[in-house]
Give the backbone structure.
Amino acid sequence: QSVLAQPPSVSGAPGQKITISCTGSSSNIGAGYDVHWYQQLPGAAPKLLIDAFNNRPAGVPDRFSGRSSGASASLAITGLQAEDEADYYCQSYDSRLSVMVFGGGTRLTVL
Amino acid sequence: QVQLQEAGPGLLRPSQTLSLTCTVSGDSISSSGHYWNWIRQRPGKGLEWMGYIFYIGNAYYNPSLKNRLLISLDNSRNQFSLNLTYVTAADTAVYFCARSPNRQTPEFDSWGQGTLVVVSS
């Protein structure tokens, strides 16, 4: 069971907007630790998608955005495209466990 | 542009020691700007942060691995390494090296492609 809870899967049609939640607790997101998001395409390494300050590495479109509130965070993808089909992970720090923690991952299917 | 590349054995027997190396190009591991991390992903599972090392050689480990894990630097080769002792089947995973900036709750901004390690008798 991951410290940061994500839905196992989400889906949406091309052009739609989806959101992926990342629910933590008072020892991680709720304590104010930053949350970052990664995209992992099949068979590839994860890549940083968006950092806690909504900065996107070069090449990542502005269709991707993140936000945090309380003990939760979310990733929004607008204008869904087939190439967005991937696994998405949130990441933060947990002060109780003293480790960097990842969510369990969410598989996005573009219908 | 920074690049990271893992190298190591693909197959180990239980109780052996796993040794992996990450070669960094496009950045110096001797600079104070970044931490150098190891992260693994068991088959079909999520990501697990294992630990990091800083340019002066001090390392921090995931407490769940602390007794078995050692991360070290080789500044002359611009490499950092992972040694994991007494491996079991539960250590079968893809191992990634990654860079993170020197700040609280850093993101992993560059990753190696990963190397699959299988532990089997």
In short: The first strand of chain B starts at residue 3 and ends at 7. The radius of gyration of chain B is 14 Å. The CA atoms of residues 37 and 86 of chain B lie 21 Å apart.
